[in-house]
Amino acid sequence: MPVQAMTQQATRHARRVYVGGLSPTANEQSVATFFSHVMAAIGGNTAGPGDAVVNVYINHEKKFAFVEMRSVEEASNAMALDGIIFEGAPVKVRRPSDYNPSLAATLGPSQPNPNLNLAAVGLTPGSAGGLEGPDRIFVGGLPYYFTEAQIRELLESFGPLRGFDLVKDRETGNSKGYAFCVYQDLSVTDIACAALNGIKMGDKTLTVRRANQGATQPKPEQESILQHAQQQIALQRLILQPQGVPTKVVCLTQALNVDDLRDDDEYEDIVEDMRQEGGKYGKIPS
């Protein structure tokens, strides 16, 4: 085997990136063309002129691809593209499962170049992949049926997110029941953790804490914000609870007491009043 081929084989794990969440219409050519174009646009090409992408493998059933770059450095630069919009939807860019960080570190840079022009492709540094650091939050105990949109809506009760990642099974694409997030305003980190941790969601209980367990308690001046946030969360819980099967029956509570029912005439008046009021909204069969 030629030396160059041996080198390519040895570095392949560090030159490939995993791209998840592809649209059903994606194919090898469209993925290769897209990533070669955006790599050039952000200044991520470091191996000379030409396309950065040398090979693409797509699993259409599971909607992911492995995109192989020319060099280890270009693959690391591609990691900055996490969350980029491809064919109308954001895709996840990750290291593949066979990636060996220790070995890769001896082959070239393992982090994206900080000077990449991500704005050229509509990204901002850390917009999707900015999930490292002391303010990263772990959100566990999520019901599996919660969608990304529902979880984001819950978390964003405290403010806009800088980064969010719902962890999914790579084989099935189903939620694993936990996520990570970082807020744009880092001062709300502890407020969000305190308000969300221990909340019941369906048959699950949320575990929300700093991912690296350096958690601190909210400061006294944050208590009023926390109280308001907890009220917001109570409303969100009602919204996110699985709904029962709709019926034609309406239950009215605290509308009368036992004494009201002892007098037959009073009872008839109550029934007639309820029929009249209810009839304003539709026909009442019984």
TrEMBL record:
One GO term of the cellular component aspect?
Answer: spliceosomal complex
Q: Which Pfam families match?
A: RRM_1
Gene3D superfamilies in alphabetical order: 3.30.70.330
Under Gene Ontology molecular function, one entry of this record is: RNA binding
Concerning CDD domains, the annotation shows: RRM1_U2AF65 (cd12230), RRM2_U2AF65 (cd12231)
**Major subcellular location class:** nucleus
Q: Which UniProt keywords apply?
A: mRNA processing, mRNA splicing, Nucleus, Repeat, RNA-binding, Spliceosome
Would the keyword Iron be found if you checked this record's keyword annotation? Answer: no
Q: Which family does the record claim for this protein? A: Belongs to the splicing factor SR family.
Q: What does this protein do?
A: Necessary for the splicing of pre-mRNA.
Q: What is this protein called?
A: Splicing factor U2af large subunit
Record organism: Gossypium aridum (American cotton)
